[in-house]
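Summary for the steering committee. One of the milestones for this cycle was to obtain a three-dimensional model of the protein with nicotinamide-adenine-dinucleotide bound, which we needed before selecting residues for the alanine scan. The sequence and ligand used are listed below.
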Amino acid sequence: MTLNIGVLGLGSVFAGPYSSLITKLAHEGRVRLVAGYDPDAGKRQAAVDRFGMDTAFETPAELVAREDLDIVLVLTSMNEHGALAKAALEAGKHVLVEKPMATSADEAVELQRLAATSPGHLVCAPHVVLSPTYRRMHEKVRTGEIGDLYLGRARYGWSGPWWGKWFYEQGGGALFDLGVYNLTSLCGFFGSVRRVTAMMGVAIPKREAEGEVVSVDAEDNAHIVLDFGAGRFASIATGFTIQKYRSPAVELYGSTGTLQLLGDDWAPEGFEQWSNDRGSWELFGETDPHWPWTDGLRHLVECIENGTETVTRPEHALHALEVMLAAKRSAAEGRVVEVTSTFPDLVYAPTAADGGAAARAKHDPRSE
Ligand SMILES: NC(=O)c1ccc[n+]([C@@H]2O[C@H](COP(=O)([O-])OP(=O)(O)OC[C@H]3O[C@@H](n4cnc5c(N)ncnc54)[C@H](O)[C@@H]3O)[C@@H](O)[C@H]2O)c1
């Protein structure tokens, strides 16, 4: 089976990381890049020149209506994600949507509902929980190797993008763009957040983007504290305000040990473990230094091929969005904000009880 891919948004992540993974999967005979849409005529032409794909669409709706497409990738600016992913799910496609899955709670709830009732899988970035390093750390946490998990700390940031004004407009900002990685990672370890409190603001009010000086309307600097209940907390520092760092990306403190993820959670370099029993640090090197942060696409293809459920769940992405919206409210109103959504724990070896037929029947429109 070769799966046909259509892409909405032919910007930098398409031209770089996603297209290189697509090329690899295409060499393996598993996918074919057939169609793309972007309102920018120059990007459409570049996609035709490089990949020979069909870009003759007037609207995203025309692309998702194309019957021969199996998978739609939503790689646009963030404010577009919700509506485009909805249209693709409604058309019966499997969908991968970049982060965040939507910029409003209503859109995200609708996506989760559609993912449960429509034939297609919905895979939401970031795909951090799929990395070999994350999986090994998760197993250590769940099997009690560091005891009860009490405290966490994570950070991710850089000096900020220059190629899109939308990063600095409402619906953009450092938390949606960067902090979402740490949040997805921490929730995967701790479970659902109950309450959040945050300091967020605009540290650099003018920036250069798309060759112009723009006003920054979305927070570019944030510090967030998460309450997971039972006295368990974690914090995230994120911003378009960071030049360099040499600290672990994610630190987990348990009753008998510590885990520290090295590198970034979207580009891990292994991890270190402290055990009270051993009385020493142990280094676990990266087992796949070439793991790509676009791995959700490989995972989606594999789930379609095998008729299995996805490890990454839309509920996890919806929860992350609710926490981020709560953090924005907390910062704006100067108070602690409750979070009500929950998501199921990660299950890394999902198998359909009947050998995959049930999952295929739900998820492959062609079997209906
Ligand atoms: N750039 C990164 O390093 C990076 C990394 C990981 C994830 N992401 C995520 O990937 C997404 C895209 O980021 P990017 O850096 O490629 O941005 P970009 O600005 O380079 O590209 C986005 C593209 O979407 C197009 N677009 C806007 N509205 C559209 C619509 N309705 N239909 C089709 N296309 C539309 C724009 O014209 C633009 O070409 C964002 O959600 C971002 O958060 C980016």
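Key point for the committee: Confidence is low (pLDDT under 50) at residues 351-368.
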